Each structure stands twice: as structure tokens, then as C-alpha cells.
């Protein structure tokens, strides 16, 4: 990795509690809706660990999707209102495609969904909004990266799916604030510090399908980073899957966290993340 121990020690950091899966024998599951009577919403047990989370702003140029599994960029969007579904799909999706082609050298980018996070609007009953996730996780697994890619490509009537999935592709999220981040910032774990055995595949149960994500168990080798006080003209890339198995980062664990330096009257975090399929040159 390009972040050596000395430069890590020189970085400012906060210490915060991060929530990990407690190791378990059975496969974890989590329902996204109220399950049938007698079935728990989830079967996982979780534990917190107080860890240093390093300010990565000073080393942003040394961090990359292929090494650490995440990246940072400044990026102006022409979207006026990120709570307007039409603007997101008509303007932001196209901006994201162009940005990812530029950053990754991809030949094709498919944006396949987005999530808005705002705990305040959620509490007010607004639909289509979620709150920040505060458990260490990764959105896809070695299996579900392929499964979801196949589903999304088929939904778009793409014919050469088998051919596309034989070349290198990745699932990359673009995460950005809608307003300056004052609380619940995003923490990112250097993919090179995660052991394969730390990744625990679990079922994410929807009404019409079952997805698979990684929960993460604690390992003292994990190295955590964040970009304090992110602004609406900044964005983070998170690699959630990479089909390449050649030593490049494949899965970047991440989580929202309670920042001890947040002001007492901090406004709830507002953010949007896009999920994308990124196809590299053959």
C-alpha cells in the first residue's frame, strides 16, 4: 500500500466507536421489511471497537480505488435539488458516468440506483429516504457482484451480458454530501488492511429478492480514514466489488460513525450515493 506507517502516524485523527459483526456460526440475515411472525428482523450480534479514524485529506492524492478501494475528488454538479428524482436521473446520472470514465478509464458505466440519506426527513415521514448506516459493511460480495450486474444489464435489454461479465468490471459507489457534513461522516477502511476472513457474507432479504452483502468482523489490522467536513462539491468513490482477482482492492468496508468532534447543534447529515457498474477495457 502507498500509505506507510510513518505517514499514518502523522495524520490527524479522531477516535470513535465503530460497530462490527460479532463472529457467528450461521449465515447472517437481515430483513428490509417487517418479517413474518416468529422470524427475527436479523440474527446478527454486533460489537463496538474504539478506533482511530485518520483524516485523509492530506494524502488524498496517494489514495486510489485499486490500492485502498476508495478515492476522493472535487466535483461540481449541475443538480439544483438532489431531492428531485428527475434531476438526479436526468443530470446526475450522466455526470457520474462521465466522472467515472475519467477517473477509472472505463469504456462503459451503468448507474443502476441511488440512495438519499437524511435522518431528519426520514423522521418526518418522507418516503424514499434512509438514515446513515452505522455498521461496518460492504454492499456486495464476490457472488452478488456478478448476480446484481446480470440483473441490471438484463433489465436494460443488453444482449452481450456474458461477454461483458467475462471482462473486468467493478461496482463503484459515488458518495457525496448534499449539504456540508457536520455529523455522521463516512469512514472508509483501507482494503489492503482487510483479511478475506474478515468478510462475512449475509443475506439481505427484500420482498421480491434476496441480496447478499458483507458484514465485517473486527481485525486489529484495519486502517480507517475519513474526509472531515465534506462539502457538496466533493465526492468519494467506494469500490464495493471488483471481478479482478490479481491483488487489486476488491472490497472497501465503510460505515457512518458518530464523530466526537461534531458540534452539539450539528444538522443531520444529508448525502446521496449512486451505485454503478464500471466496465474496463478488454
Mean pLDDT level: 95
Question: How are the strands of the biggest sheet laid out side by side?
Answer: 4-13-8-15-5-6
Number of DSSP strand runs: 15
Q: What value does the Rg take, in angstroms?
A: 18 Å
Biggest β-sheet description: 6 strands, mixed
What series of H and E elements makes up the topology?
HEEEEHEHEEHHEEEEEEEE
What are the segments in which pLDDT stays under 50 over at least 5 consecutive residues?
A: none
Shape: globular
Q: How many H/I helices? A: 5
Helical coverage, percent range: 10-25%
Q: How much strand content do the residues show?
A: 25-35%
* Separation, N- and C-terminal Cα atoms: 26 Å
In terms of structural class, how would the helical and strand content be classed? alpha+beta
Q: Describe it for me?
A:
- With 282 residues, the chain is an alpha+beta fold.
- The radius of gyration is 18 Å and the shape is globular.
- The mean pLDDT is 95.
- Helices cover 17% and strands 33% of the residues.
What can be said about this structure in brief?
The chain is of the alpha+beta class and 282 residues long. 17% of the residues lie in helices and 33% in strands. It is globular and about 50 Å long.
Question: Helices and strands in order, then pairings?
Answer:
Layout: H1 5-10, E1 13-21, E2 29-31, E3 46-55, E4 70-74, H2 85-104, E5 108-118, H3 119-123, E6 129-130, E7 137-138, H4 144-155, H5 161-166, E8 169-177, E9 186-189, E10 199-205, E11 210-216, E12 224-226, E13 234-242, E14 254-256, E15 270-279
Parallel strand pairs: 2-10, 3-12, 5-6
Antiparallel strand pairs: 1-3, 4-13, 5-15, 7-11, 8-13, 8-15, 9-12, 9-14, 10-11
Amino acid at each position: 500500500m502507498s500509505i506507510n506507517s510513518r505517514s499514518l502516524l502523522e495524520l490527524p485523527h479522531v477516535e470513535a466507536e465503530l460497530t462490527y459483526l460479532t463472529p457467528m456460526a450461521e449465515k447472517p440475515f437481515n430483513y428490509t421489511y417487517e418479517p413474518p411472525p416468529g422470524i427475527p428482523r436479523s440474527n446478527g450480534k454486533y460489537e463496538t471497537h474504539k478506533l482511530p479514524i485518520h483524516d485523509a485529506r492530506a494524502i488524498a492524492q496517494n489514495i486510489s480505488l485499486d490500492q485502498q478501494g476508495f478515492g476522493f475528488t472535487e466535483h461540481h454538479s449541475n443538480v439544483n435539488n438532489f431531492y428531485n428524482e428527475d434531476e438526479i436521473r436526468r443530470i446526475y446520472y450522466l455526470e457520474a458516468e462521465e466522472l467515472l470514465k475519467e477517473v477509472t478509464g472505463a469504456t462503459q458505466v451503468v448507474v443502476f440506483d441511488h440512495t438519499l440519506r437524511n435522518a431528519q426527513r426520514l423522521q418526518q415521514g418522507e418516503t424514499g429516504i434512509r438514515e446513515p448506516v452505522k455498521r461496518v459493511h460492504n454492499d456486495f460480495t464476490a457472488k452478488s457482484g456478478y448476480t446484481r450486474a446480470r440483473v441490471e444489464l438484463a433489465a436494460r435489454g443488453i444482449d452481450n451480458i456474458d461477454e461483458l461479465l467475462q471482462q473486468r468490471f467493478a461496482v463503484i459507489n459515488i458518495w457525496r454530501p448534499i449539504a456540508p457534513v457536520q455529523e455522521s461522516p463516512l469512514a472508509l477502511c483501507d482494503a489492503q488492511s482487510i483479511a478475506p476472513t474478515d468478510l462475512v457474507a449475509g443475506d439481505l432479504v427484500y420482498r421480491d429478492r434476496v441480496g447478499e452483502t458483507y458484514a465485517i468482523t473486527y481485525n486489529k489490522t484495519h486502517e480507517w480514514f475519513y474526509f472531515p467536513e465534506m462539502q457538496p462539491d466533493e465526492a468519494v468513490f467506494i469500490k464495493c466489488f471488483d471481478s479482478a482477482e490479481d491483488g487489486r482492492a476488491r472490497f472497501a468496508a465503510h460505515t457512518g460513525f458518530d464523530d466526537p468532534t461534531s458540534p452539539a447543534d450539528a444538522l443531520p447529515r444529508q448525502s446521496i450515493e449512486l451505485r454503478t457498474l464500471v466496465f474496463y477495457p478488454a
